[in-house]
Amino acid sequence: MTALKKTLSAAVCIALCVVLPMIFHAIPNGGVLFSPMHLPVLLCGIITSWPFGLLCGLAGPLLSFLFTGMPGAPMLPQMMVELGCYGFMSGLLISLIKTKSTVFNVYASLIGGMLFGRVVAGIARMLIFARGSYSLPLWISSYFVSCFPAIIMQLVLIPIIYSVLLKAGFIEKR
């Protein structure tokens, strides 16, 4: 993928970080249930590279906050940590994992990015953002249970979107 395509893809994904939350927050609890910013950040890392994924994960929540007020100011730094890790790790893993199965490569990168982001965000929350009031059950509840529909949506949609972009010739097989 050319540098221009990567830049434009990242810009579209960052824009989606602003637009998708507005759509999903129209649904009661839609923001919590579907984590709409996570989808474009993970996708950006996988289709571009880790630097663009990291940029998307940092800039997406910040621009969304500046334009729409979402996420709220107390959640913004936490989300930037989590989403930055998603974009970074999914992009790094897709460049490192080289099996013959594109589906496996995408799923391994996606799941690895999701786990890395959740672990780092949980550690950051424990040490910095919610010092002394954060526990393992709270981490499991907030990063796995309450957002389970989002996890399923990401595991279903991202490989499909990747496959469509691959078949359309927009991205090359990695």
Automatic annotation (TrEMBL):
GO terms for molecular function: transmembrane transporter activity. Keywords: Membrane, Transmembrane, Transmembrane helix. The keyword Transmembrane applies. The keyword Membrane applies. The chain crosses the membrane at residues 7-27, 39-67, 103-128, 140-165. InterPro entries: ECF_trnsprt_substrate-spec. It holds the Pfam family ECF_trnsprt. This is ECF transporter S component. It comes from Candidatus Ornithospirochaeta stercoravium. The lineage of its organism: Bacteria, Pseudomonadati, Spirochaetota, Spirochaetia, Spirochaetales.
